[in-house]
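Aim 2 progress update. The chain analyzed this quarter is reproduced below.
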Amino acid sequence: MPQLDLATLATGWSYPTTVLYGAGSLRKTARACGQAAIQRPLVVTDPGLAGLPMTADLVDGLRAGGLRPGLFTDVRSNPVAANVEAGVRAFSAGDHDGVVALGGGSALDCGKVIAFMAGQDRPLWDFEDVGDWWRRARPDGIAPVVAIPTTAGTGSEVGRAGVITDEATHTKKVIFHPGMMPKTAILDPAVTAGLSPKLTAATGMDALAHCLEAYCAPSWHPMAEGIAVEGIRLVKDALPRAFAHGGDLDARGKMLAAAAMGATAFQKGLGAIHSLSHPIGAVYDTHHGMTNAVVMPYVLVFNRPAVEPKIERLAAWLGIAGGFSGFLDWIIALRAELDVPHTLQALGVPADRFHELAAMAVVDPTAGGNPVPLDVAAAERLLKDAHTGAGV
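Predicted structure tokens:
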């Protein structure tokens, strides 16, 4: 069977939503909007992307397709409720009927939540991912979304939720509804080719964390688990290349696929990597993917009693010798190759609020998926280890 050339391949598939893949796929946005019955899209992106040629090209392409786009750029790197509220006001003022979300996970999450909240009559936090709170929503009030990732990390383009920070409590909250799934995700490797090495590393390690935690989660979901395994393989192959050579469209495409696969797989569960990272990011505004990368090996060691046989199988599949220890060594070497700090201290996180962060971590929605039960004492010990480098 001939090897696929992902630098030139243009194809599509549907799992869990329609995905358009290929360099130049950004030009298909107007068509995707038409298929979603969007005529007046609100383009949601962040201030850094707003002035770039790709954003102007996107807006021009929408206009050329007969659509009437607006532009909203008030999105923080860790979006807060005020960003969503401002977006809903812009959505209403412009009489928009859908959202085109362009950017990294923050812009995609914020865009999806804006589209969700535009037709709701209850406050945002009433739709936190707790029990069946999503049933409080008016499904017919959810506007359609077309999502275009500019980083290969969160996979939010194929997700049914958005992470928004509650500034009053300094906590990241997951807003969830099945209807938040974008109608189409557009994965264009050329869009990510200009991403800096630092952001390539941070977002790529986020994709790896999603796949790894989904694979290790104890719940039964063999489809998601299989997707996670292949996602990890793609990261192993492509992330160092994308980091070293940003214009490598084959590597960029594989990382976009891995990111979408991670977000598809983590319906199986996440774990302590994320439950520790969320409060750190909420309190200190650290980059989510980079924080995941820093704490990853410490959580892996903590989970070793429950996951060692699975990691041994995974290492064998990836061609990594040495079982669990070999896999851990690969993670540490990959972080070093990508210039990821080895400790939270090197990331700039102080050590004065660990008990508070630990208490926040154990009630984070992702904590329940950790293979080893996480209590406050264990979470605090993990934070201390990750701060000093103990045990890794």
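The beta strands are 11-14, 18-21, 41-44, 70-72, 98-103, 145-149, 161-166, 171-176, 184-187. The first strand starts at residue 11 and ends at 14. These observations will guide the mutagenesis experiments scheduled for the next reporting period.
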